[in-house]
Structure formats: structure tokens, C-alpha cells
Amino acid sequence: MYVIQVASEIAPVAKVGGLADVVFGLTRELETRGHDVEVILPKYDCMWYEQIWGLHRVFDDLWVPWYGGAIHCSVYFGWVHGRKCFFIEPHSPDNFFGRGTFYGCKDDLLRFVFFSRAALEFLYKSGKRPDVIHCHDWQTGLVPVLLFEIYQAIGMPNQRVCYTVHNFRHQGVGGVELLWATRLGRPEYYAHHDRLRDNTHAHGLNLMKGGLVYANFATTVSPHHAWEVRHTEQGCGLQSTINVHQVKFGGVLNGCDYDVWNPEKDWHLARHYGAASIDDKYVNKEALRERLWLRKDWKPIVAYVGRLDAQKGVQLIRHAIHFALSRGAQFVLLGSSPDPAISREFWGLKQQLNNNPDVHLELGYSDQLAHMIFAGADMVLVPSLYEPCGLTQMMALRYGTVPIVRAVGGLADTVVDRDFGYKPPGERNGYVFDHADAAGLESAMRRAIGLWFDYPAEFRQLMVQGMCYDYSWNYPGQHYLNIYEHIRAK
Prior knowledge:
Layout (H helix, E strand, L loop, with lengths): L1 E5 L11 H15 L3 E7 L9 E15 L2 E12 L2 E9 L16 H19 L5 E5 L5 H8 L10 E6 L7 E2 L2 H6 L4 H4 L14 E2 H8 L2 E4 L2 H9 L7 H6 L4 E3 L29 H12 L8 E5 L8 H13 L3 E5 L5 H13 L6 E4 L4 H10 L2 E4 L9 H7 L3 E5 L2 H6 L16 E3 L4 H17 L1 H12 L6 H15 L2
Parallel strand pairs: 1-2, 1-6, 2-5, 6-7, 7-10, 10-11, 12-13, 12-15, 13-14, 15-16, 16-17
Antiparallel strand pairs: 3-4, 4-5, 8-9
């Protein structure tokens, strides 16, 4: 099968969040299975060019229709750790992708609407006819609209679209200028409630809604989150649209890159280990204590690794630090916040706890330290208010580090409570709490820390059971192939 992914990110060259990891991981999995996969991206000036091999211009006469004229573009090809990638560079005073940043510009909507039109124009002019175009998030929501309203009639009648939403909170809402810019025109047609009209803003056009309506199949990044966005406020206004198109909507859990997150070959670790050599994990626990100047004592280490923001349950994280210490555990945190107020709060907490030998707050990010924490900690906390998929809990399980999570999104799909889970006791792998409050958090932490102290053999068994789970790209890859085959048959 011939698949082209159209996306605004790919790891590691253009990475802001999990979208980049998904595009890279899914592409590699599909290629491993023998399929031909290419990726189309903007040619940002701030990409990590050192990670692109053999970058060269392959198409130098791409004129992309734009308003009443056209913008001249060049297309480059390069290998990103073995993935075949095309990068579109517009030559225009707008300087769409030469801003020194991936997102955050006032004209982001126009930037990525242009990219969507340019990607399809490149496919059309270059003669590429993939079986499936897989596009991602609001930045490419207009791709299926353009395909079925323009390109299908002029030479691309057999292409099908899979559209994946990674984050429903950013939908790409703009005005009719998006229609005039791309030459879709006909605002009275596209502003209809059944097409692109935003469900909340009467005069707005919603790119994500366009992707959901026009795609042959749409997904989000976990089965539980697919339910949440249909039936709760996590749909962010798109619940009715998703329910209208529910027969072509589902959740596919993201995969974790086991080439990177694997204690059996992780070069960041003091000692490699696996489920059959779990005792070697404790060598990494001592190495982590030495690195962070923690007291060497018979205590569990509870950790948090990730962003410090409202989505991640920042107040619960703060409460967890004090609660862990009160229960005789140690606490390690690695993370930073884009919010100045939250950042100040945690710097103040760091100063307050600076002399405590049982806690270390690292307010920043270090890839090496993240690997060391997953290997050295006994438990990892993920108390998110919402979490479409989440990778932290998958990484923790791979390292034999017991996750303590809130029952939302992909966390609910991947972690089964040790005491009350729906699977047999031998298949449970962590601790889960429902309510985003101190009582809910404490209930799970108390049980986890208590098991570590009182029943160490049973805690060890729980660690091993978690390591036996396979959250690689193997299963998601097959799920996406099933979707591709389904929409090809239409």
C-alpha cells in the first residue's frame, strides 16, 4: 500500500509534542510491514537540519494557487532517520515557515491552510497517487476538504483520507478569508452547519470540523478518549459533529517507541535490565539517588516527568509531593512550565524543599535524566485532568515502574488498577483513581506506597506484570492498516 502522511511535525527534526512522535513511529511501523510511506511537511527554518540526511531539491516549479494568483514553491527531499520526507518551501513575502518557530504566529491559520493546499498541489503536479492520505490535527484539516471539493475532479479520484485528531482543544477557527485564500470560495456553501461552520461561533469556519466531516475515516489517539470527545466536554464543542459521523470515527491508541524506551538497551542507564533481571533495576535506583543527591535509604521513589500545566493536574502534582513525603517515600520531579505563575510556584517549592534529602525538583528538561528516572523510580505519577493518549505511563511500564494515573483518555486504556481492575490479578499493572481531587490521588498513592512497604514481593510482581505489556507500534500499526483497507474498499 502507498501511504502519504501530511503533518506539521515529525520527530526529531520538527517536534513540539506527541504528534511528531506519532508521525515518525507510525511511518516506521508501516514501512517495517512492507508498505511505501512518505511524509510531507513544511520546510521550517528552525528544523533540526543535522538530523536530515541527503536533503536536496527535487521539485522546483510548484505554483500553489493562492487568492487571485499563485505562490512559487520548491520541494526538498531528505531522509529523517530512514523516513522518506518531502519539505515544502514557499517563496513569498509572507515567509510562512521562516519565522524561527513552528507555531505561535498571528497568521498560523493562513500558514497551515497554505501548507494544506501546497501539499495537495504537489501530489497532483508530481503525479503521486497514494492509496491513502493520512493527515493530522487542525493544521491539515483542510486537506480532505480540498481533495474532495477540488482535486478529486481534476485527476485524483481514487485517493482516500484518514484524519487523526491528537488534541481537540486546538481546532483552527477562522473566517471566510480561508476560503478565498485557497480558492474554495462559496462561503454560503462551506459555512453550512453540515460542513465547516463552527459549532460555537456562528461566523467561524472550523478546520478540524472540516477534517472530521470530509475524511473517509477519522480517529483520535485512544479508544477511551474517542468516547470522551463524543459524550463529554472534552469534545470542545465538536460532540454533535462527531456523533453525526460516528460510523467513521474511532480511537487508536498511540504506540511507544521501544527502540528509544527500552531498559534492555538504553544507553543512558547505569545497568540494563528486563523482566527476567528485575533486580538490576535497583542499580539504576542508586545511580539516580547519587545523581540527585537523595538520601540512600529503604524507601520508594515516586516520580513525575512531564510538563507542569493545568492539563497535567499541576495542583495534584504539588499535593503528591507532600503526600509522598508524609508516607515515608521520596519524590523526584522533572519538568517545566510555559506558564510564568506555575513556574514561580514550583521554583518557590523547590527553594522550600531544597534541604530535604528525600526530594528533588528539576525544573527543566533533560532527556538523559528522564531515562534515568524511569529506570530508577519505583512509581510514576500521571494525575492528568485530561490525557488523550499519554506516553508517560507506557514508558513507565516498560521500565518496571508502577504507574499511578487518573482514569482519563489513554491512561484508562493502558493502566489496570491492581486492587479493583477489570482484568484478572495477573494482568493488572498499576493504580488508578477517578476524581481529580486530593482524596482520589491519596487513595491511589496510599495503596501503592503501602504495597511497596508491606508486601514487597507483591509489588515486585506488579512491576514484572507491567513490563510484560506490549505498547509498541505493533498493534496500532495493524489497526491503522485495517482502517486504510476499509476506506480503500469504499
